[in-house]
């Protein structure tokens, strides 16, 4: 069964950190660029970061540059998102998905794979 499963979300205070994990099963994650997306209630989905399949090149949306780090371990079929200095406005469901990843942006592949998401709550 092909699936992506996110974990690592939770409650964190403003300024705190979380590390999200994305585990793939049923397919080889290393063949795909993977993106992290987030969506808050009433807001549009936003591509946060992505990492290419070939050379590990990374892309970040401007608002998270310098605070978030995406990485991948193809041997473990895993992708990670380290999030530092989290702010209340970043509270959302975060999910990983196969993505188009380039300097022009981060886009979900509609016919690709994505997980159910993990909730990130930033509150004091």
Describe the structure using short key phrases:
124 residues, mainly beta, 11 strands
Q: What is the helical fraction, as a range of percent?
A: under 10%
Mean pLDDT: 95
Radius of gyration: 13 Å
Judged by helices, strands and strand pairing, the structural class is mainly beta
How many helices? The count is 0
Low-pLDDT runs of 5+ residues are none
SSE string:
EEEEEEEEEEE
Q: What's the story with the biggest beta sheet? A: 7 strands, mixed
Total strand count, please?
11
Shape assignment: globular
Strand content: over 45%
Distance between the first and last residues' Cα = 39 Å
Describe the structure.
The chain is mainly beta and about 120 residues long. About 0% of the residues lie in helices and about 50% in strands. The protein has no helices and 11 strands. The radius of gyration is 13 Å and the shape is globular. The model has no long low-confidence stretch (mean pLDDT about 95).
């Amino acid at each position: 069964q092909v699936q992506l499963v996110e974990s690592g979300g939770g409650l964190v205070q403003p300024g705190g950190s979380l590390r999200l994990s994305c585990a793939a099963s049923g397919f080889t994650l290393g063949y795909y660029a993977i993106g992290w997306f987030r969506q808050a209630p009433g807001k549009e989905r936003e591509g946060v970061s992505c990492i290419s399949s070939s050379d590990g090149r990374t892309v970040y949306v401007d608002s998270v540059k310098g605070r978030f780090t995406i990485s991948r371990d193809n041997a473990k079929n895993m992708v990670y998102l380290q999030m530092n200095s989290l702010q209340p406005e970043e509270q959302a469901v975060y999910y990983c998905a196969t993505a188009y990843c380039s300097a022009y942006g981060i886009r979900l592949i509609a016919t690709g794979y994505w997980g159910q998401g993990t909730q990130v709550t930033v509150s004091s």
